[in-house]
Specification:
The protein is an alpha/beta fold. The protein has one domain (2-261): Rossmann fold (3-Layer(aba) Sandwich), CATH 3.40.50. Helices cover 46% and strands 14% of the residues. The protein is built from nine helices and seven strands, in the order βαβαβαβαβαβααβαα. The chain has helices spanning 16-27, 39-50, 66-75, 100-126, 149-168, 188-191, 209-222, 231-240, 245-256; strands spanning 7-11, 31-36, 56-60, 82-85, 131-136, 174-180, 226-228. The chain has a seven-stranded parallel β-sheet with strand order 3-2-1-4-5-6-7, with helices on both faces. α1 packs across α7. It is globular and about 55 Å long. The N and C termini lie far apart (64 Å). The model has no long low-confidence stretch (mean pLDDT 92).
Amino acid sequence: MENQRKTALITGGTSGIGKELAKLFANDGYNLILVARTQSDLDSTADELRTLGVEVTTIAKDLSKMEEARSLCQEVTQHVDVLVNDAGQGVYGLFKDNDIERELEIIHLNICGLVILTKHFVQQMLSLGDGKVLNVGSIAGKVPGPWQAVYHATKAFVLSFTSAIREEMADSGITFTALLPGVTDTDFFNKAGMNESKAIQDKDAMANPADVAKDGYDALMAGEDRVTSGFKNKVQVTASNLMPDAALAHQMNEQQKPVQQENH
């Protein structure tokens, strides 16, 4: 029976939504390949998940470096049934002030790394005519994002890309699903330097990453094209479809500016 178990590869699988997705796959008997930058984080997460009775392989890679994304593809020799592109980062601040190298890292991780992995593992899945891909986007991909201009733009790419290849491969046996969370209680905002943003001051309004992961997991297993996690976020996305981009950008600017600028 062990050899018949399916395998899920999850990037960003040691924290937040990625870790919660890993737990869901493990509970359903999937063996796991976890990818993250820090081996110590991988080790502790793997130990936790192995208690659920599955095999867990860990690979430490920085997917913002293209050579590491490519080497990951070469190092994974077993068949991957499900690819979860969860790794992603943002940076907070005005575009004119932010460090360009940091912004390029985010583009490389959120876009280029995702494309490299998707290309490789989808070609592998095609040999069996079966597989699933979950790309973790964001409701940020539906609106221009002052104070996070590059991040919002990368997530717009993820949504467009996922919808396009889903249509291209509609008859392939492989499904593509985009998960669109809103503000979720993870370490993302801390890493992005966003703690001063008005958008995240109300911690109680943040989504639980376990709930977001369950929404994504259920949609993936059902073969749905995309799922917006949370009622409030569904309403926001629906409203954004009716507003011009300039109005959306202004609204987002008001929501994301630093707290100390609120009255300026």
